[in-house]
Amino acid sequence: MNNKDGAVDHEVKRVLQEQLEALDDTDDEDSSRHSPSRGEKVLAELATLSHAGSKTPLKKSSQHLTEAVMEAARSTTLDPKQKAQAVYQHSLSLFSSLFETPTADFIKNTKSAVGSVVEMILEDDDTAINLLKVTSHDYYTYTHSVNVGVLAVCLAKKLYKNKSSHNMREFGAGAFLHDLGKVKVDPAILNKPSRLDEWEMKRMRTHPYQSYRILMDTSQLSEECAIIAMQHHEREDGTGYPRHLKGNEIHEYGKIGCIADVYDALTAKRVYKEGMPPFKALQIMKNEMIHHFEREMFENFVLLFSK
Ligand SMILES: [Fe+2]
Ligand SMILES: [Fe+2]
Predict the structure, then answer these.
(1) Is the residue at 237 inside a domain?
(2) Distance, CA 76 to ligand 2 centroid (Å)?
(3) Sign of CA dihedral 132, 138, 141, 142
(4) Could you say which ligand is closest to the alpha carbon of residue 262?
(5) Tell me, what's the pLDDT at 257?
(6) How many angstroms does the Cα of residue 182 sit away from the middle of ligand 2?
(7) In this model, does residue 234 exceed pLDDT 60?
């Protein structure tokens, strides 16, 4: 595996910068990139997505949801199964609201909540295992986000054990927020039950970059963690998107995001397909998709389900 020490090195930053420049060149519908105050513009755009006319002040609602997740994650009275259920359900509520109102404040609060969940996963093996079991297979972007976050943090815990060089709170925030850019994709495309045409696919495929841009422009995440958002659709053999990176060109965090993302997509139930049972999904990933993943990392992922 590359970058064993965890920190994002100059090479990764250089590759990322190239990606951004290349994408900016091809981002045909987004003229905001030439604005000197792009960050402000993105924040203003995001603010317009907030509930117009909502009776509950956003900040209070966001704080309330965040506190509920943190409280569940830090509970000392619930047993592991109850605790996993409480953390999962409160996380779903939080992410469901976040995807409706992805403001900078809300992202900041969500990051704190995710930090508590990450700490709980790292410190409490029993609850972490139960958390993997309670993940729902109904497919909504927010359900998927929480599932991928849990799966990715559990895999990172296994890979990095007690290595202090990895900031797991930042990593977790990147994993839970990897698809946030979908708020910029037309819901008609996101929820289309049939195959996407070429134009729709092109719009859909902007979401890793849109996630990256939101996270960086709202200054809520370190660059190394926004890489999960940017690279979770890259594939080990270079067949992914947006940059067709391969092998060591993909950051380890991007590779972890990829495995968690594919697994959840396979096991999720959609309007047009049943969700696969976990074992079947792992089998298909091994037999038909193994060239998409780093083998050693995939083997560690499989071991997560062996308990
Ligand atoms: Fe995605
Ligand atoms: Fe995803």
Answers:
(1) yes
(2) 32
(3) negative
(4) 2
(5) 98
(6) 9
(7) yes
